[in-house]
Write a structure and sequence with these properties.
By secondary structure, the chain is of the alpha+beta class. The chain contains 10 helices and 4 strands. The protein has a 4-stranded mixed sheet. α1 packs antiparallel against α5. It is globular and about 50 Å long.
Length: about 220
């Protein structure tokens, strides 16, 4: 059984710990304490996590997340490291791998790339291929709100259409960078853009990515093979 999710979990915990509770992140103006609380609530409090997309649960999510954010920061980091409680569905290795590999990779970069002295991480080829596979399968969902046509392209020429339309912008980069770009981290992703100047500007500022539904789709695609 692959352990990409476990590795990314531990890396995210290490990055959050090293950064401290008040460091900036790329995530919606959150500081590291807020991001840590979000990750822990997501897999430990299903009764509140639905508020990520369901308006009726939004207030509950904000309240529960604030309660977790108020915990000692070291406790939050330990909860993340040890993983979900025994009865949580995220405790299943297959579900953890399906739902958390991308989640933890992106959030690790949210911490890393918000720091002034960040350096790009070299991904091993196997993990890069995993991220590309996930990007291929979810590209249409990630790019559904793009204001222009979007093609994601690896340096070796492999491509996937994230959004049909004209004019078209081709985004070229390594799989991890393409995933970050498509998940709404356009400014932080190290990619090359080719296309109409106005289209490039519109894509740079577009709201890309659908996080909660992306996680759900990852799970379905993982078990569907």
């Amino acid at each position: 059984m692959s352990t990409h999710a476990k590795r990314e979990r531990l890396l995210l915990a290490d990055l959050l710990e090293a950064a401290g509770p008040e460091a900036p992140t790329l995530c919606n103006g959150w500081k590291t304490r807020d991001l840590a609380a979000h990750v822990v609530v997501r897999e430990r409090r299903a009764d509140a996590a639905g508020g990520i997309v369901l308006g009726v649960l939004k207030n509950r999510l904000e309240r529960v997340q604030a309660e977790f954010a108020a915990k000692p920061y070291e406790e939050l980091i330990q909860l993340l490291r040890t993983g979900p409680p025994r009865m949580s569905p995220f405790g299943l290795k297959q579900l953890d791998e399906a739902a958390n590999t991308v989640e933890f990779y992106i959030h690790a970069e949210d911490v890393r790339r918000a720091q002034p002295d960040w350096s790009r991480r070299d991904l091993d080829p196997v993990f890069a291929d995993v991220l590309w596979s996930r990007t291929e399968k979810t590209a249409r969902m990630l790019g559904r709100r793009a204001p222009v046509g979007v093609v994601l392209r690896r340096p070796d020429g492999q491509t996937v259409v994230a959004h049909k339309g004209t004019p078209v912008v081709t985004v070229t980069g390594e799989p991890g960078e393409l995933l970050l770009f498509a998940a709404g981290r356009q400014d932080a992703a190290r990619v090359d853009l080719d296309g109409d100047k106005d289209a490039l500007a519109r894509l740079r500022t577009a709201e890309l990515g659908l996080y909660f539904w992306l996680g759900c789709l990852m799970i379905l695609l993982y078990f569907a093979g």
